[in-house]
User: Fold these one by one.
Assistant:
Number 1:
Amino acid sequence: MSAEFQSQPEEYAEVPAEQASPVEESSAPSEEAYSGSILDWIVSNENVQQSNRAAHRWDEFMNADNVREKLIAWLGKIDGLSKKSIVLRLNADVAQIDQWLTDQLNAVLHHPQFQKLEASWRGLEYLTNMVDDEADRERVIIRVLNASWKDVERDIERAVEFDSSELFKKIYEEEFGTAGGKPFGVMIGDYEIHPNPTRNHPHRDLDTLQGLAGIAAAAFCPFIASASPTMFGLDEFTGLEHVENLRSGFDQAEFTQWHAFRKTDDARFVGLVLPRVLMRLPYETFDARADGFSFREEVGGRDRRNYLWGNASYAFAEVLIRAFSECGWLAQIRGVQRNVVGGGLVSRLAVHHFGTDRYGVAPKSSTDCIISDRQEAELAHLGFIPLTRCHDTDLSAFYSNQTVQKPKVYEDEAATQNAKISAMLQYILCTSQFAHALKVIARDKVGTFEDREAVERFLNDWIHEYVTPDEKAKPATKAARPLRQAEIRLRDDPGKPGSYRCTFKLWPHYQLDDLVASIRMKTNIEGRRK
């Protein structure tokens, strides 16, 4: 903002001092009250008397009927001042007000609680913007549950078992477990998981996470959240770049519960992403603003904490939505190919650039730390999903998608490979898609066949429509028939006459690191409820 006089000088010249609005002598302030500008009095507001004088000056300024009165109320004594001097003083005051507003806005924007709120809303916007095609809107459904981590923790704690929680009812019973329901494909949690309670985070995250894992496994709906820097003994992820050995930190006794959780079967339905991602660019000066306010967000500092960082699970959701929109199959969600927007490539994050003579030639990382290739492999081994920067580009990518579960090691090499592939999120997601369809189809058919063998035969005929044994088949064929082999087995449920326990094994085409293995899952199949 700046002060300008165009038509005002004439008006100013027509109003001599003796014509100014008179002030009653009893209420007139002393000459000292007009010794400086109104801003000087506001800033030096040290006692009640000065506060009253500043308030009086402000009332005079707001109620003044002409330019001269307003100038006297704002600047104080103006006798002998030239037009240029008045404009300079007004511009100085405007600049001071701009600076105060800038400082206040920066303080609000960079407050941790406000940053968390803004990052969550921008993350949701980021997610919905991924569904930008009319056909995608019919296939990709986003539902929002507004629940704090404290709410989720309380729900899990109060439930005797995870399947008696309110969240289980919403995710499983009201959709996957109900005829006509639409099973959830994945849960994206805007939460950061901590290994242990702290003063700033007094929650037992791993207890809550174990309950969420049970819900995710029952509903075949993986839960994706973010890992906190405290997992690595850090306050911010920026310090991760200087950690030489990530594994050594997990040998501490405080990670006993973490290791126990990684050994559970349900842990393969949980994915923890890191680090944080840039949710928007810093605000820059915008000269075309109607109000003339010159605001520039201050994001300087070595730790980069003034940038708006958000949960990386939204970036992983981008990969999932794109893969599902392309072929309806969630296998191609890792790695990158040159000149191809697909796989694990994340292309929609905000990108800030270094201040170079030619803008845009030196992009900064869209993550709050840069993870090396060695660290990426180490983090995947520890049960995390790292997002890494693509070198010399403004893009990022997921090169692995390991679930939290630690694969078991067996004497039999084939069994060990099965354990490894069963702990990869891309195959858990693919298997979950078949589990959803399998249960819905079988639920409608139970009771219409004479015996268990007939149901089993029908289900095997159905799933073989998605099988092609040709390893050299074209990508389009593999997208339509994503399985190399499949097998479904049913057995009677002794406790529920007319219901079956289902075990299905799937051999997907898309393999990682030349692993050749199968995925084995179990579920219960009941007839349609009357």
Note: The chain has three domains: 8-105, 112-279+309-398, 434-525.
Number 2:
Amino acid sequence: MDPFYMRESIICNPGDRAIATRQVEDFMLANIKKGAILIPYFPEDKFCTLIVVHPQHSHAVYLDSGRDKKKDYTHIRALLNDALTGFANKAGPLKVERKSRGGLVLTHTTNFPCLRQSKEDNGMDAWYAILQMQEYIKYADDMLLPESLRNRFANMADAPDREIRKNWGRIQQFICTIILQDVNNRSGEFFYGYGLPPNDEIELRLEMSRDERPFNSLEGCRPFPLGMPTTYVVYKGRVPGVYDDWEDCRRQVHRFSGNSYKGYPTRVEAEGRYARYLAGEMRDMRRNRMKTMAFVMMVIVTMLVMFYVIVV
């Protein structure tokens, strides 16, 4: 399910809402054996609400860490109701059914008590949504334990902000692990085998989502990284050189054993790097030629000495 469509600014369009409805319906069918599914939703783009949907019981709970600010859930309600109807048509009768105007509907609980952030707009809604996920899963696991062991850990809903922030580092590490193992790895469940999208495509997608939050780095908050390379240098390939188009570069290195290439933001930098590379290659060739000549001379001298010794 593409989180891009789980935004108020997107699903307010009927065509996009139909796409998102099919995705949620397919997601329900793919997880038909699970009692609940968790869906992050952005009601106002920068705010994030975690929606817990129980399809078999026709119930949806909205966990909103910034619930002090009233939000409009009209479109997401309609989307989830339509997805539930499609799910029931394919999966069969539900355990609890509620109907309205000829279709199945969910009971939407939008003001459910949950972990609450200290400020109305601190830009951390997505982190709180992840913490809500952790708490929900932890609570479900605790329900499988004897009652005497259910409160063995501190309740995150009662924890201060400084305690909550300690978990964010672990969450980042967990997300990085998923990216490395399941996104970048060819055998991963979420492997994206179409290459990295260019920055302008990502920026357009962020603009459509009205997501203006800065990106985080080890050095703090920064704007979006510099643009993708516009010029490519093929160091080792079918025809080494400087190329302005990625497809031309790809044709030179695709299935070429030992290929070496790199992209640069400007042609001037690419030509400079390639010139330095060629100069280095020339130095290496001269050095290797001198070594070869020295070896040949040594062999010749050795043979002459041996011949002289034999003759004398």
Note: DSSP finds eight helices and eleven strands in the chain.
